Amino acid sequence: MTAAVGVCSREELVIRRATQVTRKVEVMIREYDAQKDLASVEEVERTCEVGPSGTVSLIIDLLGDPLCRVRHSPAFHMLVAETCGSQKLIVGLIRGCIKTIVCGKKTRRSSAATASIPIYTKAGYILGLRVSPAHRRMGIGQKLVVQMEEWFRSNGSEYVYMATEKDNLASLGLFTGRCGYAKFRTPALLVQPVFAHRLHLSPRASLFRLQPDEAESLYRRYFSTVEFFPRDIDAVLRNPLSLATILALPTGASWPGSADRFLSHPPSSWAVLSIWDCNSLFRLEVRGVPLLLRGLAWTIRAVDRAVPWLRIPSVPNLFRPFGGYFLYGIGGEGPEAAKLLRVLCRHAHNMAREGGCGVVATEVASCEPLAAGIPHWRRLSCEEDLWCVKRLAEEYSDGTVGDWTRSPPGSSIFVDPREV
Fold this sequence. Notes:
Blueprint: H1 10-23, E1 27-31, H2 34-47, E2 57-61, E3 75-83, E4 90-109, E5 114-131, H3 140-154, E6 159-165, H4 169-178, E7 182-185, E8 188-193, E9 205-210, H5 212-222, H6 233-237, E10 242-250, H7 259-264, E11 270-277, E12 283-287, H8 291-306, E13 324-333, H9 337-354, E14 359-364, E15 385-391
Parallel strand pairs: 5-6, 13-14
Antiparallel strand pairs: 1-3, 2-12, 3-4, 4-5, 6-15, 7-15, 8-14, 9-10, 10-11, 11-13
């Protein structure tokens, strides 16, 4: 059988004509107006799944506040793409925020000692880019990105970065293919389900809750030259969504009340983390899971309810809206640091259970030395996320670091919970 070249059926002709008409649609990029755009933006969010098409994906419910994921940053902005003409329709949106973060370090030598000094840069972060399925591949996403970059530049940003899944080809094609971004860092997103039972904490560890000023002092000393560490860490720690900063020490050791005294004479091992409440900001829902796995999860939960004394690690119902806590500021030193970190993660799990959460999550550098102490489920986690970066400014605030986009990765990164 030979195919006729250039001949198509009536149905194919109709589809082609409809596609051609659709692709001629013009859009205007403008600032989000909460009073008139809320319902339309929520509809776009409902039609967009997070994750590569055809696989397990997430639906995000922003609980009536499209700005919730950026409004806690020092500066934030949201744009929408609206069709032109008599019947205006919002078909895309993008969010961005700006902050000052560490991008490198330089060495200062004195007669007494050698110290590393952080180099800061002003950077923009893009998140929540959405284009309705019926209006994709028309250049709308690129227009939104370009306009957001203009806002970053006008506010003094030297760099812009974003995060996506490494196998999200559409996102990578847009950012690295058409917008000039470079692949930069590949952190691991680690997620643990919150079980029906409290987790046991080791008696070999003592936990201390630090006050915000104590946590700030410790973080500024310990994370001072870690990539992406925010200059306004005090605002993060004092935010009501930052529930606690917990320090784990070997039994018998104690917190001296000062980061200077603690770090000048530290115990043999220690670990620290902070807990951020995402449950109050947005809810997630897993979709695309095979029926067999959904049935297995339901069965395990049913058995656990019937015989709770067995303490079966039943998976929470992630197939309906759920929230979570995010762990940030993860650090520590010493041969037992990973074990102490595991105790902290268990404590965070128990807090999340009391807070009605479905998961506890964190994100760390791919070569983070403490990653072994972070409990997680491989099926729920992403062991290689992808961050991309682009240089916006022609000149740098500090020439020591050179072009940050070309710098090698460090062993750790600081993931700001305001960007989750």
